[in-house]
Amino acid sequence: YALQGSRWRVKNLTYKISKYPSRLNRAEVDAELAKAFSVWSDYTDLTFTQKRSGQVHIEIRFEKGEHGDGDPFDGPGGTLAHAYFPVYGGDAHFDDAEMWSINSRRGTNLFQVAAHEFGHSLGLSHSDVRSALMAPFYRGYDPAFQLDQDDVQGIQSLYGHKTQTDIGGGGGGLIPSVPRATTQQPSAEDPALCADPRIDTIFNSADGSTFVFKGDHYWRLTEDGVAAGYPRLISRAWPGLPGNIDAAFTYKNGKTYFFKGSKYWRYNGQKMDGDYPKDISEGFTGIPDNLDAALVWSGNGKIYFYKGSKFWRFDPAQRPPVKATYPKPLSNWDGIPDNIDAALQYTNGYTYFFKGGSYWRFNDRLFSVDTDNPQFPRSTAFWWLGCSSAPRGTVGGNAR
Amino acid sequence: RSSAAPTFGTTDKATMYLAQYGYLSPSVRNPSSGHIMDESSWRRAIAEFQSFAGLNATGELDDQTNEMMSLPRCGVRDKVGFGESRAKR
């Protein structure tokens, strides 16, 4: 990555679209440009709020030929757009002679070019990493677009990592914290997932995002549903990782471990962290194959594995890591059923168990399923996957 | 005047491209300077572009380089900021 040399001093930025493209629906353009901004807010504390008028940080215009800044556009092809670094105002101009398109292989993809130009508006220069979004050349429509690590490092060197904020309340005596919604983008609803909300596994990544795996696909969760633009292919985001994962968790070392059958993989972010897969029996002595679920329990920071009607406790610092007194009956976890699908210590400090279309919130202090209204188990579809037609209750966020 | 207009071949196009995206001094885009440029700066500019674009940095304006120059792209210069020789941190 390369930095131009300037950046915004504030993180809550505003933008307005002063001139829309002549051939696209305005509401669709609003949504695509919001999505383009969220490419950068996903990894930083930047927020982008659209205004319809008045002073903003970033002004966006679709123009043809000479348009007043001495750098005329050149018609279809060639230069697609350009933008100004923060020190020069941060505005972004797009060549309205291009065939801008949305979610289509025809024409030029508006989302990808806009995300690139907004990188300039935030202070990034062109990168010589060919797979980077900030490489200067348009590489065609990519339906499974992902920000390259080069771009993530670049934007975080300007605006820091995405941090978590405390918003107070919550049980179990722990300080709850929930990632703050960073763009005004509403969550999406995935009809297929709502129709069958059973999941393979659910885990938090090191940067605080929460992911759900099912089959070959994954979804990133927002505070009250799944993020727009999903599902995506697991193999594209975690190269080398198969689908149909049994269990996953992120440990204190920031590495994420995935389990399937008799094997496990270790990733650092979305990069495989060495030569994997390895045998579970080799890396997690005493833990069986074909797991149901795994989590790092907030009560003592140790790793718990679940299978059938039993559970194991794994302490990396101990020899052997699994005591002879394990496995123990899962019924020790009062109120949690056998044969669960997934388990998670969520970012609010609570521990959750999932099975079929239902989930339970566990009270670590009382060591039993929490009591609340509505009772547990609740509908995973409504509370976690944003399925509005699923059984109701109080809405999302910490109330999960 | 029309007979004096330069024929706009690939070299001229490449010169404009290299000047537009920061590999050559913008002054070469000014017709009044008559596109006067020494060989070494031209070859260096081509090699810098080739290196930035992930091509072999030969300094020769070959087909692959021309093809890369014809791709649709962003209008912001590739070389910006201070200390150009340290463009990547």
Query: Mind telling me the C-alpha Rg of chain A?
Result: 23 Å
- Low-confidence segments of chain A, ≥5 residues, pLDDT <50? 165-185, 393-399
Instruction: Give the oligomeric state of the chains in this entry, treating copies of one chain as homo and distinct chains as hetero.
Output: heterodimer
Question: How many helical elements of chain B?
Answer: 3
The poorly predicted ranges of chain B are: 1-8, 81-89
Q: Give helix % range of chain A.
A: 10-25%
Describe the structure.
The complex is a heterodimer of chains A (400) and B (89). Chain A has seven helices and 27 strands. Chain A is α+β, with helices and mostly antiparallel strands. In chain A, the strands form seven sheets. Chain A has a five-stranded mixed β-sheet, covered by helices on one side. In chain A, strands 14, 15, 16, 17 and 18 form a five-stranded antiparallel β-sheet that branches. In chain A, helix 1 crosses helix 2 (110-122). Chain B is mainly alpha-helical. Helices cover 36% and strands 2% of the residues of chain B. Chain B has three helices and one strand. Chain B has helices spanning 10-20, 39-52, 63-69, and one strand at residues 73-74. Chain B is globular and about 25 Å long. Chain B starts with 9 loop residues before the first helix and ends in a 15-residue tail after the last strand. The model of chain B is unreliable at 1-8 and 81-89 (pLDDT under 50). The chains are: A alpha+beta (400), B mainly alpha (89). The A-B interface holds A 1-5, 71, 73, 77-83, 85, 98, 108, 113, 116-117, 120, 125-128, 130, 136-138, 157 and B 21, 51-54, 68, 71-78, 80-82, 87-89. Strand 4 (79-83) of chain A pairs parallel with strand 1 (73-74) of chain B, so a sheet runs across the interface.
